[in-house]
Design goal:
There is one protein chain. The protein has 189 residues and is mainly alpha-helical. It contains 9 helices and no strands. It folds into 2 domains: 1-55, Arc Repressor Mutant, subunit A (Orthogonal Bundle), CATH 1.10.10; 56-189, Tetracycline Repressor, domain 2 (Orthogonal Bundle). It has helices at residues 2-30, 36-43, 47-53, 57-74, 76-82, 85-105, 113-139, 149-155, 166-183. Helix 4 (57-74) runs parallel beside helix 7 (113-139). Residues 1-8 have low confidence and may be disordered. This is TetR/AcrR family transcriptional regulator.
Length: 189
């Protein structure tokens, strides 16, 4: 009979964890050096609650990283359902660029063996998401057939190298269009 009483606690704990991850993402986006105590305060939870879920700063940073990558990967079907394939492709890569800029802002926090393992474990799902987008674009006639998702992901790396300001965002959009033009079906006369 004690098991049903534990169900809400687990649901509440999961809800707290998800809330902390969202708050930490926003806090790290503002400053990669935000303290765990500042994040706990901003999340409206006690430091003990935060440390129970994430005993170290690295644990929290890696959890935010994994959570955001999972969110990006999981967003592909919804984007494709709501937008034309090339528009979904554009939006997804711009979202990925925003996230990678955040990741770079964390600098040293993601320069550990555990972080490199996390990056390596998320590469396959990200590449698979790119493959899903490419297949939809190919079926729609927006890109030529046979593009390698890993190649396209590497090509799109320019997106997270532009400055995160209005001029950089505009430059990213222009460069994205140039890259998409290169992915289109080549017609020869």
């Amino acid at each position: 009979m004690s098991e049903p009483a534990n169900e809400p606690t687990r649901a509440d704990a999961l809800k707290n964890r998800e809330h902390i991850l969202r708050v930490a993402h926003d806090a790290f986006a503002e400053s990669g050096t935000t303290s765990l105590n500042a994040i706990a305060k901003r999340a409206g939870v006690g430091a003990g609650t935060l440390y129970r879920h994430f005993p170290t700063r690295e644990d929290l940073v890696l959890a935010v990283y994994r959570h955001e990558v999972r969110r990006l990967v999981d967003s592909v079907p919804d984007l494709l359902a709501a937008h034309a394939p090339l528009d979904a492709f554009r939006g997804w890569f711009l979202g990925l660029a925003d996230y990678v800029r955040l990741k770079h802002g964390l600098g040293e926090a993601l320069d550990t063996a555990a972080a490199r393992d996390a990056v390596n474990e998320t590469y396959a799902p990200v590449t698979a998401a790119v493959g899903t987008l490419l297949r939809a674009c190919e079926e729609d006639g927006g890109v030529r057939p046979g593009l390698d998702p890993a190649d396209v992901l590497l090509l799109m790396g320019f997106l997270w190298r532009v400055p995160p300001d209005p001029e950089g965002e505009e430059q990213a959009r222009r460069l994205l269009e140039l890259a998409i033009d290169g992915l289109r079906q080549v017609t020869r006369s």
